[in-house]
Amino acid sequence: MAALYSTHCRLHPSSLQSSSSSSSPLSFILQRAAFSSSSKRFATAKVSLKSQPDSHQIPLQTHPHDGATVAPVENVTSSKDLKAKLSPVVSLNEPLSEASFEKDENESTVSITVVGASGDLAKKKIFPALFALYYEGCLPKNFTIYGYARSKMTDAELRNMVSKTLTCRIDKRENCSEKMDQFLERCFYHSGQYDSQEHFAALDKKLKEHEGGRISNRLYYLSIPPNIFIDAVKCASLSASSGNGWTRVIVEKPFGRDSESSAALTKSLKQYLAEDQIFRIDHYLGKELVENLSVLRFSNLIFEPLWTRQYIRNVQLIFSEDFGTEGRGGYFDNYGIIRDIMQNHLLQILALFAMETPVSLDAEDIRNEKVKVLRSMRPIQLDDVVIGQYKSHTRGGVTYPAYVDDQTVPKGSLTPTFAAAALFIDNARWDGVPFLMKAGKALHNKRAEIRVQFRHVPGNLYNRNFGTDLDRATNELVIRVQPDEAIYLKINNKVPGLGMRLDRSNLNLHYAARYSTEIPDAYERLLLDAIEGERRLFIRSDELDAAWSLFTPVLNELEEKKIIPEYYPYGSRGPVGAHYLAARYNVRWGDLGLDIDQ
């Protein structure tokens, strides 16, 4: 786990070596430890990969988990050898111009190429996250950032575009403009087609000029539509891979629309990349409160014994946005809220929440436990799903549009903008406990949270003080992922005075009040992990298969039967059907406004 983020950044050895396939156990639950190459057995496969036209053939090996092919790991025989491989973290005080670097062939470089650099995701998230890492001193000494897209643009135009979205950490603003200038000097642009090996070969030539004969490590971030993933991966792999270091590719969701398309995408990616080179990103896994889940559970004795069906009555995973598609309806209509939010963000959080204690904090150990949870889940029944779509609504003299009023949305679309579902895990720990998911657009607030409602106290002496509504007396643990991050536990407490009047109070950990440092954006953490080769927060192919296997049948049934969504007003709490679904399992949604939210 990350240490204090504003003052400590780890630089993972695997980010500076040639390809690494796995890691040794992490030693502390509140720290990310550097891990080295594992001595796990690999079965040699008779396959070779030509990483770029002038490179040597690299024999590949097969990983025991999923049959993926991976490049062999270079042996490091001593700590002295390891230190020689490491590139020091850049000092915030030293000049950073390219000309000032000493060209040492034993040093390594990291070249980060944002494919689709002219898009919104790159401008609003990726470049700002890279700058934040540089500002915090978390990037290696020798790094270069390239934007790649079809748009014609000069280096200066890219820098001007990127500079408009950069911000500095609140506690270090005194160096802000200087650091921005130094960062922008490392940013370059190359225009090319996503399906042109020739254009990627030209990019490769430019990257080599900046790498200057050092060990070259390359990271590609695919900020492009999924229908051109394979073209870009093919061209980057064949024409612009590293010849003497690692090459990694970050792939953005959606990872297909169903089991079949997801499997086809994975198969195509693996024609050009080993599984260990593919980093499937789900940015919710990089959020501070999601990463804190395992710390909260496994390092606090008061929680771990309660994390079971004997004490937990239900678990709720809630995601809501207070805005509609707003011009993105054309993209959204092809996927819908279930594919866009529930099948990935919420299901990944559920797997982390419900998994058994892993053998270690090693990436493979954690992902193994998540897969076990997904494979233990009961098939989702259509009766356990409610879908909705927002309609036009006038409030305060302002008229808000319906989903189908978006000009990019087909008329008469039945795509759900809201969904609620009841899921069950058929294993010894969670048998019979409903996991309720709810996600929607154009609702009354913006929120993402996990709510754990505990069982009623048997034979509670104070039941009469709560009247007939025993749910008011239920303990509840709330993990608010966003906004205004917090963890609070609802308890029953006596109100001071001579009488016996009970009150429901919060034991509250409010992050803004407790910690003075700004919480890093999820993309910062995930980009740093990808550079370091830390795969714990990325999705493995068998995880993806298990997730789609769970949702594909009910998605097909919804579409084949043309189920009409329940319409709800823009800015409301969503369809009434979601409350009937919860009531069927004797559950009340926890976000009904009855909280004493801090």
From TrEMBL:
<protein>
    <recommendedName>
        <fullName>Glucose-6-phosphate 1-dehydrogenase</fullName>
        <ecNumber>1.1.1.49</ecNumber>
    </recommendedName>
</protein>
<dbReference type="Pfam" id="PF00479">
    <property type="entry name" value="G6PD_N"/>
</dbReference>
<dbReference type="InterPro" id="IPR019796">
    <property type="entry name" value="G6P_DH_AS"/>
</dbReference>
<feature type="domain" description="Glucose-6-phosphate dehydrogenase NAD-binding">
    <location>
        <begin position="114"/>
        <end position="292"/>
    </location>
</feature>
<dbReference type="InterPro" id="IPR022675">
    <property type="entry name" value="G6P_DH_C"/>
</dbReference>
<dbReference type="GO" id="GO:0006006">
    <property type="term" value="P:glucose metabolic process"/>
</dbReference>
<dbReference type="InterPro" id="IPR022674">
    <property type="entry name" value="G6P_DH_NAD-bd"/>
</dbReference>
<keyword id="KW-0521">NADP</keyword>
<dbReference type="InterPro" id="IPR036291">
    <property type="entry name" value="NAD(P)-bd_dom_sf"/>
</dbReference>
<keyword id="KW-0560">Oxidoreductase</keyword>
<dbReference type="GO" id="GO:0009570">
    <property type="term" value="C:chloroplast stroma"/>
</dbReference>
<keyword id="KW-0119">Carbohydrate metabolism</keyword>
<dbReference type="GO" id="GO:0009051">
    <property type="term" value="P:pentose-phosphate shunt, oxidative branch"/>
</dbReference>
<comment type="pathway">
    <text>Carbohydrate degradation; pentose phosphate pathway; D-ribulose 5-phosphate from D-glucose 6-phosphate (oxidative stage): step 1/3.</text>
</comment>
<feature type="domain" description="Glucose-6-phosphate dehydrogenase C-terminal">
    <location>
        <begin position="295"/>
        <end position="589"/>
    </location>
</feature>
<dbReference type="Pfam" id="PF02781">
    <property type="entry name" value="G6PD_C"/>
</dbReference>
<comment type="function">
    <text>Catalyzes the rate-limiting step of the oxidative pentose-phosphate pathway, which represents a route for the dissimilation of carbohydrates besides glycolysis.</text>
</comment>
<dbReference type="GO" id="GO:0004345">
    <property type="term" value="F:glucose-6-phosphate dehydrogenase activity"/>
</dbReference>
<dbReference type="InterPro" id="IPR001282">
    <property type="entry name" value="G6P_DH"/>
</dbReference>
<comment type="similarity">
    <text>Belongs to the glucose-6-phosphate dehydrogenase family.</text>
</comment>
<keyword id="KW-0313">Glucose metabolism</keyword>
<dbReference type="GO" id="GO:0050661">
    <property type="term" value="F:NADP binding"/>
</dbReference>
